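tool_call: predict_structure(chain=1)
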Amino acid sequence: MRRNLSQLVDRKFDLLVVGAGIQGACIAWDASLRGLSVAILDCGDFGAATSANSLRIVHGGLRYLGRGDLPRMRESIRERAALLRIAPHLVDPLPVLVPTSAGPIRQSRAAYRIALATNDLLSWDRNRGLTQNQRIPPGRLVSRAECLRLAPWFRKAGLTGGALWHDGSLRSPERLTLSFVCSAYRRGAVPANYVRVNRLLIRQGVVEGAAVTDVIDGAEFDVRADSIVVAAGPWTGGLITCTLRGTERPDRIQGPTGALALNLVIRRQLTPVAVGVPASGSAADDPVGGGNRFLFIHPQPDATLLGTWYSVPTGQDVASACELGARRLVQDFNAACPDLGLSLDEVVRYQWGWLPQKAGHESGRPLSLAERPIIVNHGLNDGVRHLFSVEPVKYTTARAVAQSMVNRIFRDLDRPTPPCSTADLPLDGAGVAPGLDAPWAQPNTVRVIRDEMAVKLGDIVFRRFPTGPAPKLDRTMVEKVAEVAAAELGWSVRRREAEVTDVLRQTTTGAMLLEPVA
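tool_result:
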């Protein structure tokens, strides 16, 4: 899967997918499996934006039980099982602990006993097709002593124990997204990273393709397709708006939209299990969550992920917003668990992204996070035919949203709709090549350039190699990888040095404030 943009010209695809985050990647994989010719483009690297910066938890939907939303709960259970089934090399069962208390009834042992039993009943098929080490065990209550052994910094006053269940843990969101892209490629799709869509091409009310620019060398050309799905995350609205209005390039009119979501990374290990605790903030302090937010702690190898803080758009620059969010998030964790003793000095990386809000698309507070994907057929009501857009809300359900999206595309193209098999067919492995003692070895650098379309040094280090959310990079090690990449990709000495500098810059907290991929 080496980058070859000549494969995009002088042909017409059945489907062009704009955006290669997790949603676009899932759509390309599903459509390719069902026989459509597919091109998928991204202005950056595959899965390098919001898709790379989740808490790495595949939620099974237990939170929907409290709202009585059983259909969404069942969907999450099915999709958690699907990811465990099709990507066992990248998704593992994850124990999750929440404290029970003698306070509000919703946090009591009795309430969680009922919730866990109901969850087990409703997830009766949660282990279908899973190997023994991928199976999700029943939930259970734990004693106060066991709870404090797992999380000794829990607030002890009123603590009666805890509730423990299992969800899924993403070893690497970046590589899972890449697995979908690689799998689509092996079924005939043509992926290309670092290709910016300038505008969509419309003739007589029908979409015909996109005018694009190669970000690497500036070359401009057209990509033709019978149908287009825009799955560009927070940039979707800008591209669609410009298309429907016939105005200029979207990046010159509207930036990303939605709520800013921030997670923090520290290198201290806090607990061997994932932990959820209620935040104590009010609706005024938390306009997105409405004062009902849960804080999550997700242990990683040599690090811990902490999240999530949300902010409504205020016109403030991202760096300042993230600095404010980091302070608030540390304060929230220390307020919920005073013995945790978190400090801003411990934070080694910020992860941020834009998430869609309800904003009139569904019922509820406009500022709150959207709970259902926004799927639009822009050909309705005399609009642009064969043009679709989708804004997903969860990494967990991206595969199911893609299935629905591809069904619509077949109907729109007036073709018979083949069955979807993406819930059961294993993805082609996109892990580090077996037999290598170290992922940083020279053969592996060459492999990810030739087989996984790594174009920049950052693609290799952050999204092809298993560096994790808190990479510890040594200049000598990075320079050795850069030497191999330079020989393979034809970089000049100046280009190689610039690539090294950029990668090392991204390993400092201050730099992370400014990274659009975080």
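agent: Residues 5-51+174-257+371-412 form a domain with the FAD/NAD(P)-binding domain fold (CATH 3.50.50.60). Proceeding to next step.
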